[in-house]
Write a structure and sequence with these properties.
CATH superfamily: Amino acid/polyamine transporter I
Shape: globular
Largest sheet: 2 strands, antiparallel
Strand content: under 5%
Low-confidence stretches: 1-20
Number of helices: 22
Helix content: 55-70%
Pfam family, one: AA_permease
Protein name: Amino acid permease
Strand order of the largest sheet: 1-2
Keywords: Amino-acid transport, Cell membrane, Membrane, Transmembrane, Transmembrane helix, Transport
Family: Belongs to the amino acid-polyamine-organocation (APC) superfamily. Amino acid transporter (AAT) (TC 2.A.3.1) family.
Structural class: mainly alpha
Distance between the termini: 23 Å
Subcellular location: Cell membrane
């Protein structure tokens, strides 16, 4: 389906073939409301909270709560902007399609390939992390569990790859249960901490108090500057929340399901990030947290619950597998969207009989396996560099969403396009505010020596994309001339 064909299906109309509901792009609409809701919830909960928050607490103290709250508000503005676009035209290419329509073909090309790279890089880190988490159970094990790290990396990649090529329903089910584990863990921690604060049980009962949020050196113990410098890792924690937009072409009822999922963003962030951190830091002084140590593990230890380490290890393993699963899902769709619009190899357009992008998913999975080897051979600071590059790549998608929404709203207000049934409140001012916030985070990344490497890599990636686009343009022009002749 080319861009011209897309315009013929602006209403996201569905076709019926062999009794199956399909989108205009050929995908099967196999994701129900239950799965979309949990994909939306799980997309905002990952290792950035379960592991990364420890570093943030160490750097900013209790004020990390404020950083998550403000960034969460910005994420809500981004998601409402995306929601407005999705209700205008729900397509699987999502923000890549919108960038192509409202900014230009080159913007769509850059967005599609950058988001694909983001998920490949993220998948590399997450499948490597998942295999590392397995060492918690295998280091003292005998028999089949006593395997080197690369074996589990291979096993996880193959399993998730297979699941993504069986059916979109299976992908949705995996994400549903992955998300359920994460949600249950956070809710359980909140309830335990609430019990300690009100009843006073466990080893932490005598000292637990909400006053610890400001009695341990103040709410900003290391200054506001330290809080600002945590925004990069805070935004990284929220990456993948936009994945719900990629599911638009495979949602059973996108006009109903997607707005409901997007409107849950505020309470998701309020409960799972702000609420969880308020509870944990009211039970455990912020000075007890260290980089590289999960705040959940530290809290369990303070409470005298030794089983906490095993529980959190299982949860972060689940979070890593969820992220890798999402990566395989989204990369295949992005590559197919690029190919359908003449911006990628044509063989990526092939779908299986179940309506799944075979070659796009296969190539992405193969690259994730290469990344496992690279991470195994050269660990060092590679993870920090990859996280920084993933952050800048993911934020590019957010920037394109916001600019596309601003331009769409202007055209809709002039009567050039139909109005969306799910308008972003306060737009375009909220979209401009979100853009300004994202650019501030990018500036802060330039100040942070650990994150600066991603800004060095960005121009190189931009050059590669520019050269690739020129090649694609010449190829498409040549093909058009051959047709005319």
């Amino acid at each position: 389906m080319t861009s011209v064909q897309v315009d013929k299906h602006n209403d996201g109309s569905e076709a019926v073939a062999d009794g199956e509901s399909t989108s205009a792009e050929g995908y099967q609409r196999g994701l129900g409301a239950r799965q979309i809701q949990m994909i939306a919830i799980g997309g905002a909960i990952g290792t950035g909270l379960f592991l990364g928050a420890g570093k943030g607490i160490h750097k900013a103290g209790p004020s990390l709560i404020l950083a998550y709250a403000i960034a969460g508000l910005v994420i809500f503005f981004i998601m409402r902007a995306l929601g407005e676009l999705l209700m205008y035209r729900p397509v699987s290419g999502s923000f890549s399609e919108y960038a192509r329509e409202f900014i230009g073909p080159f913007a769509g090309f850059v967005t599609g390939w950058t988001y694909w790279l983001f998920w490949v890089v993220t998948g590399i880190t997450e499948v490597t992390a998942a295999s590392a988490y397995m060492q918690y159970w295998t280091k003292n094990a005998d028999g089949w569990l006593d395997q080197p790290q690369w074996v589990f990396a291979l096993l996880f990649t193959v399993i998730l790859f297979g699941a993504n090529l069986i059916s979109v329903k299976l992908f949705g089910e995996l994400e549903f249960w992955f998300s359920m584990v994460k949600v249950t863990a956070i809710v359980g921690m909140i309830l335990i901490c609430a019990g300690i604060l009100t009843i006073g049980f466990s080893d932490a009962g005598d000292t637990a108090s909400v006053g610890m949020l400001w009695n341990q050196g103040g709410f900003f113990p290391n200054g506001i500057g330290s809080t600002l410098m945590t925004l990069q890792m805070v935004m990284f924690a929220f990456l993948a929340v936009e994945l719900v937009g990629v599911t638009a072409g495979e949602s059973k009822d996108p006009k109903t399901v997607l707005p409901k999922a997007i409107n849950t963003v505020p309470w998701r962030i309020a409960v799972f990030y702000v609420g969880a951190l308020i509870m944990i830091l009211s039970v455990v002084p912020w000075t007890h947290f260290q980089p590289g140590v999960s705040p959940f593990v530290a809290a369990f230890e303070k409470m005298g619950l030794g089983v906490g380490a095993a529980i959190v290890n299982f949860v972060v393993l689940t979070a890593a597998l969820s992220s890798c699963n999402s990566g395989m899902y989204s990369t295949g769709r992005m590559l197919r969207d690029l190919a359908l619009n003449g911006q990628g190899p044509k063989f990526f357009t092939k779908l299986t009989k179940n309506g799944l992008p075979l070659y796009g998913t296969s190539v992405s999975a193969a690259l994730m396996l290469v990344g496992v080897y690279i991470n195994y051979e050269w660990p060092g600071e590679a993870f920090n560099y990859v996280v920084s590059f993933a952050t800048i790549s993911g934020m590019w998608a957010w920037i394109m969403i916001l600019i596309s929404q601003i331009r769409y709203r202007a055209k809709a207000d002039r009567g050039e396009l139909p109005q969306s049934s799910f308008k972003a409140p306060g737009a375009p001012f909220t979209s401009w505010f979100a853009l300004a916030f994202i650019f501030m985070v990018i500036v802060l990344m330039g100040i942070d020596k650990d994150a600066r490497i991603s800004l060095y890599a960005a121009p190189l990636w931009a050059l590669i994309l520019f050269i690739g686009y020129q090649f694609v343009q010449r190829k498409n022009t040549g093909q058009l001339e051959d047709v005319k002749s």
